[in-house]
Design a protein that fits this description.
This protein is α+β, with helices and mostly antiparallel strands. It has six helices and four strands. A hairpin with a 2-residue loop joins β3 and β4. One of its GO terms (molecular function) is protein-disulfide reductase activity.
Length: about 150
């Protein structure tokens, strides 16, 4: 009985240490991130170094851009969305090839984006011209479909 209690105590200490190290690791990764937040969802942390998910735009930055009546292509996505994970490898390189400054808006970290921009599902690509939405394309598409859509909205 005494050995079982000691063994159980060791197990509890090990799990506690593991949880502490995991939290510490996640908070270190969250420091200096492009989201300006102290803590991030683990799915977002996994994408911090992924070249497909650079060029983030924060809600305040997008608000300023649109209030100045600027133009923008904004890709609303979630790191937990399987359709986004399938779309990003198609859309992001295509936008680069077409010389489009594709801003990425993470609706997992900034949930207000759902309501602020009437996003019903991800992925959603929105074209803003003179600060106003002029077109959007929703869901997983072929490269050719995205290419035609971008050409129409350049």
């Amino acid at each position: 009985m005494k050995k079982a209690i000691i063994f159980l105590g060791i197990i509890i200490v090990l799990f506690g240490a593991l949880a502490f190290v995991t939290n510490l690791s996640n908070s270190e990764k969250a420091e200096g991130n492009p989201y300006g937040k102290d803590s991030l969802d683990p799915a977002t942390i996994d994408q911090l170094d992924d070249p497909l998910y650079q060029n983030q735009i924060l809600p305040d930055e997008l608000d300023k851009k649109l209030s100045k009546e600027d133009d923008a292509f904004v890709y609303f996505y979630s790191p937990t969305c399987i359709h986004c994970k399938n779309t990003s490898p198609i859309l992001v390189p295509l936008a680069e090839d077409m010389d489009i400054d594709l801003k990425k808006y993470n609706v997992l970290e900034f949930e207000q984006g759902w309501n602020d921009y009437q996003i019903e599902s991800t992925p959603t690509l929105v074209r803003f011209k003179d600060g106003k939405e002029v077109d959007r394309i929703v869901g997983t598409q072929t490269e050719e479909t995205f290419k035609q859509w971008i050409e129409q909205n350049k």
